Amino acid sequence: MQDSVIALWLLVVFTGITGSIVLAYPLLLLIRSAFFPCRALQKSPVMDNAAPSLSFIVVIRNAELLIVEKINNLLALDYPQNSFEIIVFSDGSSDQTVTLAKTADDPRIRVFESKEHIGKNQALNRAIAQATGEIVIFSDGDSLIESSSLRALLMPFADARTGGVCGKRVIQEKETKLSNAQQTYIAFDSWLKIRESECGSITSSEGKLSAVRRELLQTVAEGVTDDSYIAFCIIRQGYRFVFEPEARAFIHLPSRSALHEIDRRRRVVASSLRGIWLSRSLLNPLRFPFYSMGLLFNKIGRRFLPLLLIGIFICTLVLAQHSPLMQFILADELVFVFLPLLIFPVLPRKFRNTLIGKIIGKLYYIIMGMIGTLLGTLDFLRGKTVTKWEPRKAA
Question: Does residue 15 sit within a domain?
Fold first, then answer.
């Protein structure tokens, strides 16, 4: 009986914390942005005669199928042609990436390479050292920027309080197994970023398209997610890092299979927690009152959700021995976990866009993400640091 009492109290605690992470933070954001927003940033159109100089940085590895299209995309952007440079840095590519990048006949393109695979963050630091523009723009090799998006991305820099801006990612694929679930996730993440920007700064940046004042850039640490860590460095210096939804970068599906999602999420979670640990001064509520809470709920709390859910399941299992209600709840938990795992992989394409199919697909995607998140959190707690990995980019 004592075990049941302990299990009941733990169930209440775990459920309360989970509810706070999942529901309370978005609700607080909504209330804060509606009634107590930060002073709005000044935005001004970027005029050609006053356009800041830009340095695009593209770090790539074995991207021979992507690099030509990427360079052509950057060259075609709506911006004064003499006001930007493109820095391509190859991280130990063993294919024709460097050769193809150098064939572009344009003086604005500068190609650098490391013969050895040194990892993205070291490559970024070397590329940043070559940048000369007032604003440095980071963009992944597999993302294509909408022509008008560049000026939208730069508009918030009219305000001296702006240190960095990130754009919105848009998935190109429409009909694949995991596209609906990932589009829903990105839509929710974009909503959070809009509200966070209205309250101050975003708690996570977007490496597909982001811009930073060059004088504020610091060395990117090893084993961290580069985009979020760069944002943390800007915010620590007292500047705002905001989201601009009108600046759009088109991407392929971040995860193209269940195993890819688990592997990708595992790496991102472990490296993002390491970045927060190295930037832990941001968790000081006296200096960063609202932002510290956002990091705690949205970045740290979400990483520990799988452990909380496992705790809830164990407590329910213990209580189910004495309570029909808990037996019913336990049965529901098992159905919500195992039904999507069994059904979604074999669900015919014609059923995926039905209401039931979309629900099952979202649950399946959430479960895969939770598995990857759990593994990544455990990697961080064990002190495992990932500095190199093989990119899996779609052409």
Answer: no
d(CA 372, CA 82): 44
The span from the CA of 135 to the CA of 46, in Å, is 13
Task: Please say whether the beta carbons of 378 and 269 come within 8 A.
Answer: no
CB-side neighbour CA atoms (13 Å) of 263: 11
* Angle of the 355-381 helix axis to the 258-278 helix axis, nearest 10: 40
Count CB atoms within 10 A of the CB of residue 373.
23
C-alpha separations of 294 from 124, 192, 210, 245, 353 in Å? 27, 10, 20, 20, 34
Neighbours of 279 (CB within 10 A): 19
| In contact, 96 and 60? CB cutoff 8 Å | no
Domain that holds residue 227: 48-257
Q: Between the CA of residue 168 and those of 152, 241, 252, 302, what are the distances in Å? A: 11, 14, 13, 21
Nearest to 370 by CA among 299, 297, 266: 266
Q: Is residue 122 part of a domain?
A: yes
Structure-derived torsion over alpha carbons of residues 295, 300, 306, 312, reported in degrees to the nearest 10: -80
Q: Is 39 helix (H, G, I), strand (E, B) or coil?
A: coil
- For residues 27 and 297, what is the distance between their CA atoms, to the nearest angstrom? 12
Q: Which tens digit of pLDDT belongs to each residue from 330-365?
A: 898 888 888 888 888 878 877 777 878 888 888 888
Q: What is the pTM of this model?
A: 0.91
Q: Residue 392 to residues 89, 217, 232: CA-CA distances in angstroms?
A: 17, 27, 26
Distance between CA 268 and CA 149 in Å, rounded? Answer: 26
| pLDDT score for 351 | 79
In a domain, 321, yes or no: no
Pair type for strands 210-213 and 135-138? antiparallel
The CATH number linked to 92 is 3.90.550.10
Total structural domains within the chain: 1
Q: What is the pLDDT of residue 156?
A: 96
Question: Residue 325, exposed/middle/buried by CB under 10 A (0-12, 13-18, 19+)?
Answer: exposed
Q: Flag whether 119 is in a domain.
A: yes
